[in-house]
Q: What sequence folds into this?
């Protein structure tokens, strides 16, 4: 598979027929895809937990009270105790960040949460616990099996679209109404 075929910085949209409890009707932001496999964060599965709960649990003093009610998402079924922050790129640097694109970075270190608590963090962010992972060739096979659609990342879907509309909004980036799609694959 050529590098240009990798799905880094794209949304993976579950097809309507996908019944897996972990992925049904999900939108996953793919932050790493290469010959070894793929990793992503589900962006439309909020948990009962709020950012204020994370601050309390990690004993982070919050002076920017406007962020306390931000939802924490279930990023996927793998390592659900591990936290990730998808955020817009800025001039700030964090201890454990990877730049996905000129617009998006992924950070998993405490310092970004401390900055958010102080009101000095990234302008736009999504906090998730856990991630989704695929072994080498697995995601490609699942796409061929009509399990997923993919589309380039759009900040508006990630940060500004209500969570219950993200699945449809991501599909609309492709110009389709996902609710009208057939569950039958068109491969011959």
A:
């Amino acid at each position: 598979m050529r590098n240009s075929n990798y799905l880094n910085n794209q949304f993976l949209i579950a097809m309507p027929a996908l019944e897996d409890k972990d992925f049904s009707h999900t939108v996953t932001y793919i932050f790493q895809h290469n010959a070894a496999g793929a990793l992503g964060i589900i962006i439309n599965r909020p948990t009962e937990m709020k950012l204020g709960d994370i601050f309390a649990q990690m004993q982070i003093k919050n002076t920017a009270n406007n962020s306390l009610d931000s939802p924490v998402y279930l990023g996927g079924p793998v390592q659900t105790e591990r936290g990730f922050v998808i955020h817009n790129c800025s001039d700030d640097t964090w201890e454990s960040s990877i730049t996905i694109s000129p617009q998006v970075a992924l950070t998993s270190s405490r310092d970004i949460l401390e900055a958010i608590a102080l009101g000095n963090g990234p302008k736009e962010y999504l906090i998730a616990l856990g991630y989704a992972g695929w072994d080498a060739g697995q995601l490609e096979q699942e796409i061929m099996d009509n399990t997923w659609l993919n589309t380039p990342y759009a900040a508006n879907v990630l940060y500004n679209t209500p969570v219950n509309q993200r699945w449809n909004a991501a599909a609309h980036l492709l110009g389709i109404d996902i609710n009208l799609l057939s569950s039958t694959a068109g491969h011959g």
